[in-house]
Amino acid sequence: MTTDILTITDLKKHFVIGYSGILKREPITVKAVDGISFAVQEGETFGLVGESGSGKSTVAYTTIGMYRPTAGSIAFRGQNLFEGNKKRPLALKKEIQIVFQDPGSSLNPRRSIERILELPLGIHRPDDNRLEEIVRLLEMVQLPPDYMYKYPQMLGGGEKQMVAIARALATNPSFVILDEPTSALDVSIQAKIINLLIRLQEEFHLSYLFITHDLILMRNVASRVAIMYLGKICEVAEAAEFFRNPYHPYTQMLLSSIPVVSADEEEFKPKKIISTGEIPSPVNVPSGCSFHLRCPERMDICSMEDPLMVEVEEGHTVRCHLFSPEQGGL
Amino acid sequence: MAEQVEVGEFAPTITRQQLRELQRKNRLDNLGRAWYKFSRNPLSIIGGATVLIVVVLAIFAPYVAPFPEHARPFTDFANASRPPSWAYPFGTDEIGRDILSRVIFGFRFSLTMGVVVLSLVVPTGVLLGLVAGYHQGSWIDTVIMRITDIFLAVPPLILALAIASVLEPNLFNAMVAVSLMWWPWYTRLVYGLASTLRNEFFVSAAEAIGGSTAHILLREILPNMVSPIFTKISLDMGWVIIIGSMLSYVGLGVQPPKPGLGTMVASGAKYLPDQWWISVFPALAIVVVVLGFNLLGDGLRDLFAAEEV
Amino acid sequence: MSTPPLLEIKDLYVHFGVFGGTLKVLDGVNFTVYSGEKVGLVGETGCGKTTTMKSILRILPMPPARITGGEIFFKGEDLLKMRAGELHRVRGRGISMIFQDPTAALNPVFTIGQQLGAVVQYSIEGKRLSRKEIWERAIVPLKEVAMPDPERMLNSYPIQLSGGMRQRVCIAMALVASPELLIADEPGTSLDVTIEDQILRLLHRLVKEKHVSVILITHTLGVVRETTDRVYVMYAGRMVEVAATEDLFSNPLHPYTRGLMDAVPRLTGGGIADGIPGRIPDYLNPPLGCRFHPRCPHAMDICHQEKPPFYKLSDNHEVACFLYRNGGRGTQTP
Fold first, then answer.
1. What DSSP string runs through A131-178?
2. What is the domain range of residue C27?
3. C23 CB near a chain B CB, below 8 Å?
4. Position C276 pLDDT exceeds 80
5. How confident is the model at residue C327 (pLDDT cuts 50, 70, 90)?
6. Contact: A51, C192; criterion CB under 8 Å
7. For FRET with C217, which of A42, A119, B24, C158 sits at 20 to 30 Å CA-CA?
8. Which of B33, B36, B309 is facing C16, going by the closest CB pair?
C-alpha cells in the first residue's frame, strides 16, 4: 500500500503583471497554474510534461516555496506546506529540495564548490564532519574531491548539474523536484545524470517530481506522467500507457511531432498531426477548453465550456469533451 | 577528527594534508588567473603602480621627504620662492618651505580623507542597499529608499559646504561633511544590483535550503556585486580627494599651515604666473593621485569581469 | 558528387590564447557542402562546431582567437584570405547565419521593421533606399517564412512576438539578400517541439524552393535524422565521421557516434544506456593521436600516437578511426 508523499489539490497560481484600463485599475493576470491536482507516491518518479507557458515550472517553484499559492493547497505527508503566513520551517525545507534547470545560474559563481555544499550541511547536519561529508557528496555524484576548491565556471555543464544534485541531496531529503535537470545538457551527459538520479533514488528511497518538455526522456524516467497545457492538466496515466495509448488530442499532437532516431520509434508514434499556429500565452487564455484553437477534434462545446477530468481507463484520466460522459464519447 | 577521509572509487583514501595541498594549489591558480585578467591592460598596471607609490610615500612620509620639518610650522625666508632646483625639486613656497616634502605629506591628508570617508560610507551604504533591495516592495524598502532619496535630493557640494561651514574647519569635520553626502550613492547602486540579484536561481536555492537572510545578503548576493562596488570605490577615492581639496581650497577642511593639497593650491594661486610652482605641483599631485585611482578602477573592473571563452 | 562544392573547409586550425596557454580548439577540420543540400553538423557542447561556423564568416573574436592554418573556399574563393571589403560581399549575401536564441539575436528596442529594414539597406550596395522601398523589400522575406500578417509584424517589437515568430524573423533577415548558404546554429533549441517542427519544415521548404544549402548545427540526433541529407559528426575539434543520414543512423561506425546513439533515450522506453565515460579533452593539453582515445572502448596503441585519417567505406560514408584502416571490419555491431 503506497502512501502519497506530496498531494497537490486544486492548485492555482496567478500573477498580476500590470494594470490596464484608463485608470489603470484592471489587473492583467497571468494564470500560470489554474487548478491542478495530483499526488506523488512515496518512492515514485512522477513526471510533469508540457511546453513553455504550460505552468510546469510554476508548479515546481510553488512547491519549493518560492511562491505562495493563489488558491488550493500542497501537502507533504499530509502536512500543509503553506501554514499561515509564516516562512516554511527548516524541518520541512530539509525534506523537500530542488534541482533547477540551468546549472549556470543555480550555482553562485562567486562561491567555491566547497562553500556551496557547506551551506546545507551547516544548517541541517551540523554534527557531521564537514570535510568528510563534502568529499562523500562529491564522490556520490562521481566528482573527484579536488573539485571542492573550484568555482562553478571552471566546471562543465554536466558537472555543475551534478554539484546541484549533490547540494540538493546534502540535506537528506525525501522528496526532490527536478525542474528540467538535463534540458541544457548534451545527450551523453544527460544519460549519465539520469542514470545517476535513478541510482540515487534507489539508494536513498527518494521520491521525484520530474519536470521536462522532452517526452522521450519522460518515457524512460517516470512511472506516471501528467501533461499540462496553459496551466491545466490534460491527461494523466502510468508511463507506458500514456505513450502507448494517448487520449488527449494535445498529447497526440506532441507525440506525433517529436524527432526520433530509429524506424521502430517512428512506427510507435501516433499519426502526424501538424500543429498550426502559435502557442497562446497564459495572459490570453482562450475560452472554454484552452486547447480548442489548436485542436483538430474541436467541437462546438469546446469553445464554451472547460471540460472536467474523467477516468477513461484504470489509472488513466483525461480532461477533454471527447471523452466526457455527456458527450457520449465513451 | 581523522586524518584520512575515506572515499570510494576516486581516491581510496585522501588525507587532509592532500586536500590542503589542493586548496593551496587552487588558490595560487586563482591568483594567477586574477593577475592575468588585471594585467591585460597596461594602463591598469600603471594605475596600480601609481596608487602603490602614493600610498608608500604617504605612509613613510617622514622618512622619504627631504625636509619633513617643512610640513610643520616653519619659515626660512632666505630660501623663499625658489624655483625648482636640485635642492628643492618642486621649488619652495613664499615662506621657504620645500614643496616636494609638503606634497608628500599632503598625500597623507588626501589618502586619509579618502580612506576614512569610504570606510564609513561604504559599509553603511552597501548594507542599507542590500537590505532594501532584497526586500524590494516591502515597507523596509520604502523607508530606506525614501530616506536615501532625501539625502540625494540635496545638491552634494552645497550640503558639504553647509555642514562644513557650520562646524569648525578642520580635516575631521570635512570628512564628516563628505561622508554624510556620500553614503546614499552606494545605497542607490547596491539597491539596484540587489533587487536584480535576488531573483537569481542561486538565491532561490539558498532560500530553499534554509539559508538565513544574513547569509543570503552577505554571502550570496554581495559577492556578486563586488565589481561595480570596487570600481566605484576606486573612482570615489579620486572624487573624495578632489572634494577634500575643494573644501580646503575654500577654507574649510585642512587649514594652513597644514599641507593639504587643495590648501596649497589655494595659497599658491596668488603667486601665479610668476611663481607658478607653488600651485602647479600640488595641483599635478592631485591629478596624478586621481588618475592613478581611476586607472586602477578600470583594472579592477576587468579583474572582476565574468570569464568568457 | 561531381559538381564542385559550394563550401569547402580544408584543414582548419583555430587556437585561442588564454591564461595558462593556448586552447587548440580546431585541429584540422574538413567540411564540405554542396549546392542544394542540407548538411547536419552534430557534436556536443565544446566540440568546436560554433567556432567552425564563426570562422567561415570570420566573426570570431580575433584576439583571443587565431586562425593558424587551413583554407575555407566558398565558390572557389578562399574566405580566409579575403580582406574586409571582400568579406562584406559574402556575409549576409553569399552566406547567412541564424543563431540559437532568437530573443538574443534581435534588438529589443527596435521594431522588426527597423531591424529588417537595416538588413535590407545593408544588402543593397551604393544606393540609399527610401522608406517605402525598404518596407516593400522587407515584406518579401517575411512572406517567404510564412509570417501571418507581415505588415503588422513590421511595426511590432520582438517582445510582442512568440519564440517561434522571432526565429522566423531571424530566418527572414538571413534570407534578405538571397544567400546561397544558410548556417542554422541550433535553430530549435530554445523552442518548443511543435514550433521547432514548424521551423524545420520551413527550412526544408526553403531548400527546395530557393535552392539554398543549409548547414544545420545541433546536438539533437532526432532532428538530424529527420531533417538532413548528410551528416558530419564532430568531436573535440575534428570531424570523426561523415555519412548520408540514413547510413549514419543505420550503421554508425565511429565509437563516439555509437556512444552518442546509445545514449539517446528511446520512445519505446527501456531506460537509457550510460553515456560515454570521461569528459571532453582539455584543449590546453589535448591528447596526442586520436583525441577520442582516452574515452574509447576500442583504443589501440596506434590511437595514442597518430591522428587517424579518413577512411572511405563507401561513397557515402567516411570515418576517421583506425578500427577501419583495413576497410570496413571495425568491430562487430552488437
1. HHHHHHHHHHTT--GGGGGS-GGGS-HHHHHHHHHHHHHTT--SEEEE
2. 7-267
3. yes
4. yes
5. low
6. yes
7. C158
8. B309
